[in-house]
Amino acid sequence: MAFGDYPAEYNPKVHGPYDPARFYGKADVPFGQVKLGELGAWLGRRNKSPNALAGAVSRAWWRWQHKYVFPKRAGIAPFFQLTVASMTFFYLINYTKLKHHRNYKYH
Protein backbone atom coordinates (compact mmCIF):
# COMPACT_ATOMS: atom_id res chain seq x y z
CA MET A 1 0.00 0.00 0.00
CA ALA A 2 1.52 3.31 -1.06
CA PHE A 3 0.69 6.71 0.38
CA GLY A 4 -2.79 7.73 -0.78
CA ASP A 5 -3.88 4.26 -1.93
CA TYR A 6 -6.89 2.37 -0.61
CA PRO A 7 -6.17 -0.42 1.90
CA ALA A 8 -5.56 -3.83 0.33
CA GLU A 9 -8.58 -5.26 2.20
CA TYR A 10 -10.98 -2.67 0.74
CA ASN A 11 -13.32 -4.00 -1.95
CA PRO A 12 -15.73 -1.42 -3.41
CA LYS A 13 -18.19 -4.13 -4.50
CA VAL A 14 -18.45 -5.45 -0.95
CA HIS A 15 -17.91 -2.34 1.20
CA GLY A 16 -19.48 0.37 -0.93
CA PRO A 17 -18.08 3.91 -0.81
CA TYR A 18 -14.73 4.24 0.93
CA ASP A 19 -14.85 5.56 4.50
CA PRO A 20 -11.46 6.60 5.93
CA ALA A 21 -12.76 6.16 9.49
CA ARG A 22 -13.44 2.42 9.03
CA PHE A 23 -11.04 -0.51 9.43
CA TYR A 24 -11.34 -2.86 6.46
CA GLY A 25 -9.14 -5.64 7.83
CA LYS A 26 -10.20 -8.90 9.43
CA ALA A 27 -12.54 -8.33 12.39
CA ASP A 28 -11.26 -9.31 15.83
CA VAL A 29 -12.54 -9.23 19.41
CA PRO A 30 -12.94 -5.62 20.60
CA PHE A 31 -10.50 -4.54 23.32
CA GLY A 32 -13.31 -4.06 25.84
CA GLN A 33 -14.31 -7.72 25.52
CA VAL A 34 -10.81 -9.20 25.94
CA LYS A 35 -10.27 -11.18 29.15
CA LEU A 36 -7.03 -10.67 31.08
CA GLY A 37 -5.82 -14.19 30.29
CA GLU A 38 -6.29 -13.56 26.55
CA LEU A 39 -4.63 -10.13 26.54
CA GLY A 40 -1.18 -11.41 25.49
CA ALA A 41 -2.58 -13.35 22.54
CA TRP A 42 -4.78 -10.41 21.56
CA LEU A 43 -1.79 -8.01 21.59
CA GLY A 44 0.23 -10.55 19.60
CA ARG A 45 -2.38 -10.46 16.82
CA ARG A 46 -2.04 -6.67 16.42
CA ASN A 47 -0.09 -5.30 13.48
CA LYS A 48 2.59 -3.06 14.99
CA SER A 49 4.20 -1.77 11.80
CA PRO A 50 4.59 1.99 11.22
CA ASN A 51 2.01 1.84 8.41
CA ALA A 52 -0.51 0.16 10.71
CA LEU A 53 0.07 2.73 13.45
CA ALA A 54 -0.28 5.59 10.96
CA GLY A 55 -3.52 4.03 9.70
CA ALA A 56 -4.87 3.75 13.26
CA VAL A 57 -4.06 7.41 13.95
CA SER A 58 -5.67 8.40 10.65
CA ARG A 59 -8.84 6.44 11.43
CA ALA A 60 -9.01 8.02 14.90
CA TRP A 61 -8.64 11.48 13.35
CA TRP A 62 -11.41 10.82 10.84
CA ARG A 63 -13.72 9.39 13.53
CA TRP A 64 -13.13 12.47 15.68
CA GLN A 65 -13.92 14.73 12.71
CA HIS A 66 -17.08 12.79 11.82
CA LYS A 67 -18.27 13.09 15.42
CA TYR A 68 -17.36 16.69 16.28
CA VAL A 69 -16.44 18.72 13.18
CA PHE A 70 -18.57 17.53 10.26
CA PRO A 71 -22.12 17.56 11.74
CA LYS A 72 -24.40 20.35 10.50
CA ARG A 73 -24.83 21.78 13.97
CA ALA A 74 -21.29 21.32 15.22
CA GLY A 75 -20.70 23.19 18.42
CA ILE A 76 -17.65 24.72 19.99
CA ALA A 77 -16.44 21.40 21.49
CA PRO A 78 -13.78 20.65 18.81
CA PHE A 79 -12.15 24.05 19.34
CA PHE A 80 -11.96 23.49 23.10
CA GLN A 81 -10.65 19.95 22.58
CA LEU A 82 -7.89 21.15 20.24
CA THR A 83 -7.03 23.97 22.64
CA VAL A 84 -6.70 21.62 25.62
CA ALA A 85 -4.73 19.10 23.55
CA SER A 86 -2.31 21.78 22.33
CA MET A 87 -1.92 23.23 25.84
CA THR A 88 -1.11 19.77 27.21
CA PHE A 89 1.32 19.03 24.37
CA PHE A 90 3.25 22.29 24.84
CA TYR A 91 3.30 21.85 28.61
CA LEU A 92 4.83 18.39 28.21
CA ILE A 93 7.50 19.49 25.74
CA ASN A 94 8.44 22.48 27.95
CA TYR A 95 8.24 20.65 31.30
CA THR A 96 12.01 20.42 31.76
CA LYS A 97 12.28 24.22 31.46
CA LEU A 98 9.23 24.91 33.61
CA LYS A 99 10.30 22.72 36.53
CA HIS A 100 13.27 25.02 37.21
CA HIS A 101 10.90 27.93 37.94
CA ARG A 102 9.12 26.29 40.86
CA ASN A 103 8.64 28.30 44.02
CA TYR A 104 10.03 26.44 46.99
CA LYS A 105 9.36 27.38 50.61
CA TYR A 106 13.01 26.85 51.59
CA HIS A 107 15.94 27.34 49.24
TrEMBL record:
Domain of life from the UniProt record: Eukaryota
GO molecular function, one term: proton-transporting ATP synthase activity, rotational mechanism
Pfam families linked: WRW (PF10206)
UniProt KW Lipid biosynthesis keyword: no
Gene Ontology BP annotations: proton motive force-driven mitochondrial ATP synthesis
Localisation: Mitochondrion membrane
Cellular component, GO annotation: mitochondrial membrane; proton-transporting ATP synthase complex
UniProt keyword list: ATP synthesis, CF(0), Hydrogen ion transport, Ion transport, Membrane, Mitochondrion, Transmembrane, Transmembrane helix, Transport
Entry keyword Mitochondrion: yes
Main location: mitochondrion
Family per similarity comment: Belongs to the ATPase F chain family.
Protein name: ATP synthase subunit f, mitochondrial
Record organism: Drosophila kikkawai
Lineage: Eukaryota, Metazoa, Ecdysozoa, Arthropoda, Hexapoda
Gene that encodes the chain: ATPsynF
